[in-house]
Amino acid sequence: MRLKDIKNTFQNQLNSIYSKEEIDNFFFMLTEFYFGVDRLKLALEPDVNIANPEAILYALKLLKEEKPIQYIIGETEFYGLPFKVNKNVLIPRPETEELVDWILNESKTNNQQSITVLDIGTGSGCIAISLAKNLPNAKVYALDVSNEALKVAKENAELNNAEVNFIEDNILNPSQKKLVSESYKFDIIVSNPPYVRKQEKQLMKANVLNNEPHLALFVSDDNPLLFYKAICEFSNKNLNKGGKLFFEINEYLGKDMTQLLKDYNFKNIELKQDIFNKDRMVRGEHDNIKSLLN
Length: 294
Prior knowledge:
Elements: H1 3-14, H2 20-35, H3 39-44, H4 54-64, H5 69-73, E1 75-78, E2 81-84, H6 94-107, E3 115-120, H7 126-134, E4 138-144, H8 147-159, E5 164-168, E6 186-191, E7 196-197, H9 206-209, E8 218-219, H10 226-238, E9 239-248, H11 254-263, E10 267-273, E11 279-285, H12 288-293
Parallel strand pairs: 3-4, 3-6, 4-5, 6-9, 7-8
Antiparallel strand pairs: 1-2, 9-11, 10-11
Helix pairs in contact: 1-2, 1-4, 6-7
């Protein structure tokens, strides 16, 4: 069966769901993944035939059901690194790459010989592993409540030859100081916790809503900062003086997040927009003196 005929089938069957550009991207991702045929090769050899089209036609069926392409092929790229993904972890997003970039830019400007980093709610491990690969002087820890997510994160650490220490526990646990020994103090704590309010479900695309883990996505409408509050409290106890706390946030709650960090006595708070001009990240510095007075 000729690949260009399959490409036409993709366009005909998916054009009511996706744009032409999206369909082309899906098709070429799949041809390269299954057959080692990229866009250029197919352009130079338009009559390429494949003997076993079953896999790519099954992928077409899944795309019609709006299953994310990353889950279909089981992998994606984040910050220039390969990552395995499945239904137990969120698919890494470009805005999270911006968060990693922000942390790296601030971290590389200091002259510390070594730093300790904790990623809370690590999921696929994309933040922790990217930091470990780009901060050779960092000792990186990554925490998640989901054992299944940690399996994926550990596989990704091995895939990328990154040294990350993984912890399974719940940041909402009242005895959270047991999550990490009290002897540990961190220079950076980062988190991309659940932050989508249930009232915002109607704004989400079906391929996200019906496939990605709700545990990692949603919070209740009446307590949307639940995880942020717990992480701020944890950070007050476990950040070194002058240490920094970084969050990815709900674009509609930028002011609330800035106030929350003020309430927990963080200083030099900065709210940052992503490339789409949405309030997407915030960071603050730990004020050790004020924390000790609370």
